[in-house]
Amino acid sequence: MSKTFLFIGFSFDDPNLENILSRVRIMLEGNTRTHYCFFKEVNKNDYEFRKIKNKKMKEAAWKYAKNKQYLKIKDLERYGIKAILVKEYSDITNILKKIESIYLSKNIFISGSFDDFEKYCVRGKVESFVENLSKKLHEEDYKITSGYGMGIGSSVITGVLRGSKTTGKENLDRILSLKPFPFHIEDRIEREKIWHKYRKDMLKNCGTVIFLLGNKKKEGEVQLADGVRKEFAIAKTQGMNLIPIGATGYVSKECFKDMCNNFEQYYPNSDKNLNKAFQKLGNKNVSEKKMIGNIIDFLKLLRKYHMEM
């Protein structure tokens, strides 16, 4: 069994369920993963005790229920199921949101595009940096999503495929998601509307966005890529982890500066180590290998930050 289960709303008093759990335990003897379930902690203020007027009877009923719950919890441990006690049922929703946030943080969207690299400040070629960053992210067990941004998309694919040779994870659906934009929509207003929805749909299954460069050429002139800006705005609205690599210049540098000036707004109650690691993403003229290392270090601290919140 390779999955971890979280049981919600199950009655563990059901003899049929107990029979199934017993059989599973026997089948997986020695290879049992830890699974989880929720229990609302027995409280004297629960209605079933408040309605008892006699103090001694109320105390006895509460102690009985408390002991019964304790024994049930210990019994479930035999099946590899650990109980999580909550004070209120609403706590379950908060815990599930946190689990979702931590899970999605391992799904990274790489946003970026480039026609020009004059202001790119990482040593080496852009394509090599993007490819090796994608390879390293895969090796660190991140799933990558790409909108196939101009100049970026093919390097992302190559990097993940190279990484999969190392890890042996070759099921593309599990390691890489490609979302190329629908072009050839002539009506500008309709195109903008469709692209905005498309961007939101692309980002909703990711928890982290890495921004690289962000420029394009229009009529021979280099311009900042408004698409990368829009992806930053959507990701910010959706409360995602934003990681603009300032050293790559252009829109990414613009977003990086904004976050440096308002770091507490983006990562509330974070410690100085997270901020310090973020600042390194703007370091100029560092090697490709060093910058990739800085990104991985920040991601690890970011995961720790979310686990401790």
UniProtKB/TrEMBL annotation:
InterPro entries: ThsA_STALD. Residues 91-300 form the NAD(+) hydrolase ThsA Sir2/TIR-associating SLOG domain. It comes from the Bacteria. This is NAD(+) hydrolase ThsA Sir2/TIR-associating SLOG domain-containing protein. The lineage of its organism: Bacteria, Bacillati, Bacillota, Bacilli, Bacillales.
